[in-house]
Amino acid sequence: MSTATGYNFAYLDEDTKRMIRRAILKAVAIPGHQVPFGSREMPLPYGWGTGGIQVTASIIGPQDRLKVIDQGADDTTNAVSIRRFFARVAGVPTTERTSEASIIQTRHRIPETPLREGQILVYQVPMPEPLFRLEPRVAETKRLHAMADYGLMHVRLYEDIARHGHIAISYNYPVMVNGRYLMAPSPIPAFDNPKMDRMPALQLFGAGREKRIYAVPPYTAVRSLDFEDHPFEPVRAKAACALCGSRESYLDEVVTDDRGGRMFLCSDTDYCGERQAAVQRDAAE
Amino acid sequence: MAYVAVKGGERAIEHAHAWLAEERRGDPALPELTVAQVEQQMSLAVDRVMAEGACFDRGLAALAVKQARGDLIEAAFLLRAYRTTLPRFGASMPLDTGAMRVRRRISATYKDLPGGQVLGPTFDYTHRLLDFALAAEGEPPPPAPESPAEAAAMPRVTGILAQEGLMAAEPHSEAEPGDLTREPLAFPADRPLRLQALARGDEGFLLGLGYSTQRGYGNAHPFVGEIRLGEVAVEIVPPELGFAIEIGDLTVTECQMVNQFAGSRTEPPQFTRGYGLVFGHGERKAMAMSLVDRALRAAELGEDAEAPAQSQEFVLYHCDNVEATGFVEHLKLPHYVDFQSELEKLRQLRATAMQEAAE
Amino acid sequence: MTQPLAAGFADPVLEAQHCFRALLEAMSRPGRVQRLAGALAPPAPLNLAAAAALLTLADADTPVWTDAGADAEAWLRFHAGCPLVAEPGAAALLLACGAPPSPPALEAGTEEEPHRAATLILQVTALEEGTGWRLSGPGIEVAHRLRVAGLPADFLVAWATNRARFPCGVDVVLCAGERLAALPRTVLIEEG
Question: Whole-prediction pTM value?
């Protein structure tokens, strides 16, 4: 196992890891509650996944296999950069296969392949506070969480319905965790929200710049906020993937020319690749 | 097909790094800049990087400036990322800036005062005319004339005012100050924590905020009590020794801003101070910091606290340029998943709106 | 005559990581029993799991309370560098080998900062999955069964009080030999 010289295994020093590990355990014990932690400057900029990186660095070991995705894809430059960072400082094997990974660090997506027990999904979180657009004062939002006073968010959603006939939030759609804490799921598309509910894998969230860690334990209820007469509805392009034909996966829209031409492709590159390979296998048989 | 273009991220990154290295070096026909040259001749850039990088090491700061191609925020970030991996051996005793070996010391409140005014190395009275002689390689300038060192001590101006009872006393505390590099900020933040955040804060941001307090956004009536620049000793008390030993010197700039205070039910009218202290020669930053420090005390002094510079959360959460640059610049990372959601949602909302309009 | 100090982790980085993952898995799936590997030989009366958990979580920032006696205290002070406190209420981490301090005496956090609550490590005599208590709550698909031997008789009463304080409340790690299981404050424990 080769790692970068001059740095500890997984980059962080042991004191920092211990501090983060204590925060993670408390986060798991209080599902959806944001635990402040002494976030360190990382060699990658704030806003580029420093929270997720610190969480991953604090949990990862030589027996792990790491997958990193950004926008659902393993080959986006920031995902490549983070995967290289861990290959360099922790020397752990990496993979692009969702099913083979024990830790998946993600920005903005939950893989299409259902996650299982034994896996940990680490989200990179830019703004951990679900109420920040409605109440920017952190001292005040802390009080609102303490009292479970989420009226501000309900009013906001109600106003959307009154004005547009729909709730106009399409990503980072707020959720209630275990019926107690309002939580920002990070900017995943609302399409992914249902995957969080009672997921067999552990979900950890790291916000480096905002210095917060939170968690959703396995099999924990995660409900997207809605109203009885306006139930939550995840949005997806009404199309099939041009490569694998999926009508279930979340799609990226790719502009192909300047005359309005466009095509749709799976955002989850591993899922799409597996499906294409399966088709080829079937054809070969 | 466009889709292929996003593949090969790994190779793209390697090529970008190579290109960056080439740009950093510039024209190879020209001699390469040495770190020592940066340290000696771009010394104020080095000072700023040490201040905002929160790490006093001229050599490392100079290396960061060179590596960052002169981008000082990038250089401060490099220094911070290095600093964060260093083990923490202990904390120093408080610096005694009263015992500073002063190279510059000015007061705007007294024409003369014990220890005198020492102009020192300053741009203040230069005419800002481009000096074309510097463009040509020339001889080093003749040595600056040295005046005999003043034997007199240099008491602080705020101390002089305090003797007369005109300056509000600062509460003295032996309590260990918080450390925002280890514990995240919580609000209300006490003054030691605020000062720590400001000392690491972005010079430009603090300059703008300090300026805003002079223009009516916050009720400030500041006078520069004193600015001093020089070297102070750093002392630690090793637990096994039990007494203080000197481990080196720091160059710091200190500004004490004197402000009016109308008084309250419990306090008579008096002066209050705004305080600024930065690594190296950073006068603009020290002054701006002292204005903002004073503005942030508004609430505790019972003054109106409506202006941006008086809001703890606003100032402290946004003054760190490493945090700010990361989050602003992360907008260039791909966001197409979210944008796709927005597209679909917008199409849905427009369809609903048009249908309603048609009915 | 004092005994020579027992060794800590042979490989502090990787053993701490291994133990942390066991703790994380235990806290994420209450009632599932984790087994630690490793050759840690802590001074009596510490068992392997409790000792490893303390080395993994304790340092200069975590005041520790313990009833484990002078040898264990000296070992902890040396290997973890943690301050030891006499008041259970002042501790972030507690290790009880005998009768545990009563939960109301412990730091339970506040409504705004429930994460400041203490973690109580209890040494017990046996931990077994698939039988005993019925656990449910976050981390558990339907129910987990856990049998614990060596707890005080009033533990379940105290636990019900602790759970009712959510989001405040202490979290418990049960350690027997090289096995450990956790009870986060959310878990509902029913007998039989």
Answer: 0.90
